Amino acid sequence: MKTLKILIINNHGQFCHLIHRTVRDFDMDTKIVPNITSVDSLIEEEPDGLILSGGPSMERTGLSMDYIDSIDVPILGICLGHQLIAKKFGGDYGIGKNGGYAAIDIEIMEEDDILQGLAPSISVWASHADEVTVLPKNFIHLARSNLCEIEAMKHPSRPIYGIQWHPEVSHTQKGTELFENYFRICEQY
Length: 189
Fold this sequence. Notes:
This protein has helices at 16-25, 39-44, 64-70, 80-88, 175-188; strands at residues 5-10, 29-34, 49-52, 75-78, 92-95, 101-108, 121-127, 130-134, 140-144, 152-154, 160-163. It is of the alpha/beta class. It has one domain: Rossmann fold. The strands form 2 sheets. The protein has a 9-stranded mixed sheet, sandwiched between helices. The protein is globular, with a radius of gyration of 15 Å.
C-alpha cells in the first residue's frame, strides 16, 4: 500500500491522538488538524483522505460540516464524526439510551468496501452517549447493535462513511482491518 496523506480533523475527542498514532503506524503521512482550519488551508494540504474524529458535543465541531461538502476525498467519521455526517445529509442524532464507553457486539449487515472482511459480527468499543437516530435519505445502512440501530452507514454515491465505534482502540476487534479498508478506498479514489 502506498503512503497516503490522511488528515485527522480534531473535534476534541479523547481518542484523536490515538487515531493519529494508528494511522501513522500504517506509515501514512498524517496530521491532526484543528476543526477551525479554513477549507482552503485543508485543500492546500492535498489530502488523500479525511477522518472526522469523535468529540464531546456537536457544538464543538467547528467547520467539520463544511469539509464534508468542500473536499472531494474519502471521509471516515468516527463516533461524533459519524453523527456529523448524518446531520449534514438530513439524518438525525440524539442522546443514546446507554451512554458511556463499553464493549458491544456489532452485526455487520452489509460488508461493502469499508467493512470488507468484518462480517458477520465484531466486538467493539463504543460510546452511545449520542448516536445516529435517523439514517440520511438513500444512505446505505451497514451495521447495527442491540444498543443502536445505526452503528455504521455509507453515502449512496460518494466515499463517505460513518461508524459509531472506535476502530483505533485495542478493545475493538478488527480495527486494523477497518483502517486498511479505508486506506484502500483512499488509494483507489
